[in-house]
Amino acid sequence: MRARQPTILFVFTVIVGLARALSYAGTSAGLDSSPAAWARYVMLHVLAFSLAVAVVAALSRATVTRAAQVGMAAQFALFLGPFVDVALGAPVLRYEDTYVAGFGSPGALVSAIAYGAVVAWGVRDATLGPAVARSATAIAAGLLGPVALSLLVTPWPLPLLEDATTIPWGVHLAMALYFGVLACVCLAIALAVANRPLHREFWARSESMWLPVLVLLPLAGVVASGRFGVPQIAFEPAPGLKIAAPYVLASTAIGGLLWVQRRFLRLEVDRPLRVEIATIVKVAILLLAFFLGPVAFLLAGLASSLVWLEGDRANPRVFGVIAGVTVLIGDTAWAAVDFFPETVVGPLAFRIAVYAWTVPSLLGLTTAVSTAAVVAFAARATSRTSVSGRGRASS
Fold first, then answer.
1. Mean pLDDT of the region 357-367
2. N or C: which end of the chain has fewer CB atoms below 10 A?
3. What is the pLDDT of residues 214-238, one digit of tens each?
């Protein structure tokens, strides 16, 4: 990709996702207009874009850049859904119904057909060989795109979430994380097919070992906080952990994104491009941390900024501090279930989560300091092993 292309793709995809969500503002699907709902629907749209990129890359010889351009066109084809539904006055109870071809709204079927047609055109245009083989591959892509989209965007975990908590904010956040993970899988598939050398470098064995570490460290902070073990509101008989589960998952997702940001900065590719992608990941970290409370938001910003301080050279001490701050993110993450003041902006009325500033627990601080020391020592030891010629650096 050229400079600014990743940023343009990211910004346009988010804007189009918000525009599609707002296009249903007057229907049943658009009545819940909270920032958490917007995050859920934007991630749903990002999944549609990522799936198109994966299908084009997998069924043709297109580069990631070319597949992303087809994905841009395919996401605009989905705008046919709201136009058809609004024109017909079709009842749309859930926003996901507008994506599910054949099982959702009439607009879902029309937009899915257009989505598949754009994907098929992109595959045929990027495929080499006889015209018959190209056409057959395009037909397969045109069928695979809508079918896979229908299966992926169906909110399969929704019944479990609705049984676990009655707080819509948390349900939206959990679904946003679910769609976000699926989008990451689709992009990883596209990268593995279209750029195998970069994919192998990104998932280098020595570097990948730190991904589960950073994902699990927020959970250590959650356990140390001791805040999620008891009911937090009088009318909810379930344990507090059940209520706050989406926020616990969000803190672990931030740990994973910190690893992704750090990994991009350490790739042996064009530095301006990798810095640009790492910047986009940092924006995603901050947007996700917004739902965890003000202290967790500041800690996430600190951790993602420390990634830049380490840069593309291993610094065990900085990496240890990043690990310690990641523990504190889980320690201070909090479900804002007590305060949902309604804010009216023009014709829109939405709720913003407000919660008191959460002070890190004593056990959380102790765990963070201990974790920072252990991770710094492990990173330094593995770096020395690499220097001695017995393996690649893992920090």
1. 88
2. N
3. 999 999 998 898 766 544 444 444 4
Tokens representing 222 are 């959650």
What is the distance, to the nearest Å, from the Cα of residue 342 to the centroid of all Cα atoms in its chain? 27
Domain end call among 144, 176, 194: 194
Quote the tokens at residue 168.
Answer: 């819509």
CB proximity list for 77: less than 8 A, separation 6 or greater: 111, 114, 115, 117, 118
Domain that holds residue 247: 195-395
Query: Which three-class secondary structure state does DSSP give residue 342?
Result: strand
- The pLDDT, as a whole number, for residue 110 is 92
What is the number of domains present in the chain? 2
Instruction: Please tell me whether residues 177 and 244 are part of one structural domain.
Output: no
Least trusted range by pLDDT, from 144-153, 160-169, 262-271, 344-353:
344-353
269, 198 Cβ separation under 8 angstroms:
yes
Do 267 and 376 sit in the same domain of this protein? yes
Q: Is 194 exposed, middle or buried (0-12, 13-18, 19+ CB in 10 A)?
A: buried
Q: Which residues contact 83 (CB under 8 A, 6 or more apart)?
A: 107
Q: Which residues pair with 342 in a beta bridge?
A: 351
pTM, to two decimals:
0.88
What does the alpha-carbon distance between residue 307 and residue 289 come to, in Å, rounded to a whole number?
A: 16
pLDDT, tens only, 129-188: 888 889 999 999 999 999 999 999 988 888 877 665 557 778 888 999 999 999 999 999
Let me know whether 279 and 391 are in one domain.
yes
pLDDT for res 345: 57
Of 46-60, 241-255, 376-390, the range with the lowest mean pLDDT is: 376-390
* 169 and 244 belong to one structural domain: no
**Strand pairing category for 348-351 and 342-345:** antiparallel
- 370 to each of 59, 331, 378, how far by Cα in Å? 48, 14, 12
Q: Under a CB-based contact definition with an 8 Å cutoff, are residues 231 and 237 in contact?
A: yes
**Alpha-carbon span 96 to 113, nearest angstrom:** 16
Assess whether 159 and 210 both reside in one domain. Answer: no
Kindly state the DSSP code that residue 203 receives in the 8-state scheme: T
Query: Are 304 and 184 members of one domain?
Result: no
User: Do 298 and 333 share a domain, yes or no?
Assistant: yes
